[in-house]
Amino acid sequence: MNTIIQLESISQIHEFLEIEKPVHPLVSVVRHSKDMNLEFDPNLRINNHLYFISLKENIQGCFKYGRKSYDFQEGSLIFTRPGQMTSPMGNEEPDLGGWSIFIHPDLIRAYPISNAILNYSFFDYDSNEALHISEKEKHALNAIIEKIEIELSQNIDQHTQDLIVHNIESLLKYSQRYFDRQFLTRKSHHKDFLVKFDTYLHSYFNGNLPLENGIPSLKECGEALQLSGKYLSDLLKKETGKTLTEHIHLHIVEKAKNQLLNSDTPISQIAFNLGFEYPQYFSKIFKNKAGLSPKEYRNLN
After folding, report:
1. Residues 64-72: what's their mean pLDDT?
2. pLDDT for 94
3. How many CA atoms lie within 13 A of 150 on its CB side?
4. Which of 46, 209, 275, 300 has the CB geometry, 3.0–4.6 Å to 214, for a possible disulfide?
């Protein structure tokens, strides 16, 4: 039976890892060391209430981490947002070359980043979709972490929090840049997923699944391709300029065109067959993509 623990504060994180107390109540940079406690019950699950970014030099680190063979091997960054569940690994050697930064949401609550951070979709990627950074990129991120450490090591004043938050923003912006680079350098690898996604849509909409289950969700599409939904959506946007939802709607419209011109099935039934609960929503999407309402398009025949 799994044991679930709640990690709601920086102090709890430090106690959990059995390292010295944090110097700041809302943010902490932890250098991975042999003194960290990594011997955990394999049935333990952690509900982390903090933002967590970790550079892993050695893939055998603190948390379960699936990976494939990628182009950059120097280091990997993983991102976790509050409310996500993680499972620590037991009896593993510490990742001595890496670091982790833990950020309590209260640290950034009064800053614009508190809303902007929600738009960094890489926090919702699966572990095998992590950011794999080059040596040069690693040095740039390490420089930012060192600036945060400097702020934490000196007396706290009225500028401390602003400077820490500023550097966290820089960390996220550089990470986004490197993720964009990663999408670019894996174009040939990603083309396979584009074909698989197209095949998935054809298979899904050629059966009764739309009528039974509705239009597939972001999560369902990702699971079908063994990716997180957010990663698949970002991949499609980077490769095609269209979002996952746009791809689904375009596929639905093409499917509907054939049915409108080649059958007498009522438009409302076509909508239901394609997964729409409300025919009006189907008509709105159809007109947006085809330039005509379903009725107008059928009358063209």
Report:
1. 36
2. 54
3. 9
4. 275
pTM of the model: 0.73
Q: Indicate the number of domains in the chain.
A: 2
> Which residues, including other chains, have CB under 8 Å from residue 119's CB and lie 6 or more apart?
none
Question: Residue 66 pLDDT more than 80?
Answer: no
Q: Please check whether residues 199 and 277 belong to one and the same domain.
A: yes
Q: What is the CATH number of the domain that holds 87?
A: 2.60.120
- Percent of the chain predicted with pLDDT > 70: 87
Are residues 131 and 55 both part of a single domain? yes
**pLDDT over 80 at 230, yes or no:** yes
Q: Among 131, 163, 185, identify where a domain stops.
A: 185
Q: Taking residues 167-179, report their average pLDDT.
A: 96
